[in-house]
Amino acid sequence: MEACKNDELALLRALKSSNHKAFEVLYYRYSPRLYRHILNLVKIPACAEEILQDVFQKLWERRGEIDPDKSFQSYLFTIAKHLVYDFFHKEIKNRNLKELIISISTSDYSHIEEEYAYKESKKIVNQAIENLSPKRKLIYTLCKIEGKTYEEVSSSLGISTSTISDHIVKATKQIQSFCLSKEITPSLFIALISAVLNQK
């Protein structure tokens, strides 16, 4: 037991003096148990191996700070503990960042998708108007798009306001029926009609 202690003391003193052989001996002596300890914490072999290498890298970088009279194993496991803490801290940050990116991406995608659907649906409304009979389309355009009153259209076209009203009612039903056949929801249809009516 005393011989082992003296052997390790000699190795630590040699390590403090930048002895690569001493470092190698200590690595092979402690790495198996240290790896098992780290793996038990992080659960991922590749991550445990990476942290293990980081532990010994830091050991080499801080070799001048080693106190040979203190427990080397405790010193080594303390370095590992801090690196495992850093690992989890980064994982949490990365996970939060990923969730944020996914959230933003999903939000942006949904916005683009909705905008595309709106534009495509608006085209369908315009197509529905184009499909009206020439006279009905003219009356609908004059009243609903150009904003003329029934009386103005009546005077211009020489037809009664009741006839104009009949054309408007039937045109609206035709447009709605056409849009619904293209799977445009009623609420979107109302919004689109408003947009079409306000575009000119």
From TrEMBL:
All copies of domain RNA polymerase sigma-70 region, residue ranges: 26-90
PANTHER family assigned to the protein according to its UniProt record, in alphabetical order: RNA POLYMERASE ECF-TYPE SIGMA FACTO, RNA POLYMERASE SIGMA-70 FACTOR ECF SUBFAMILY
GO MF assignments: DNA binding; sigma factor activity
NCBIfam families named in the record: Sig70_bacteroi1, sigma70-ECF
Keywords assigned: Sigma factor, Transcription, Transcription regulation
Name of protein: RNA polymerase sigma-70 factor (ECF subfamily)
CDD domains for the chain: Sigma70_r4 (cd06171)
Record-stated family: Belongs to the sigma-70 factor family. ECF subfamily.
RNA polymerase sigma factor 70 region 4 type domain sequence ranges: 125-174
The organism of origin for this protein: Sphingobacterium siyangense
GO biological process: DNA-templated transcription initiation
Transcription listed as a keyword: yes
Entry-linked InterPro entries: RNA_pol_sigma-70-like, RNA_pol_sigma-70_dom, RNA_pol_sigma70_bacteroid, RNA_pol_sigma70_r2, RNA_pol_sigma70_r4_t2, RNA_pol_sigma_r2, RNA_pol_sigma_r3/r4-like, WH-like_DNA-bd_sf
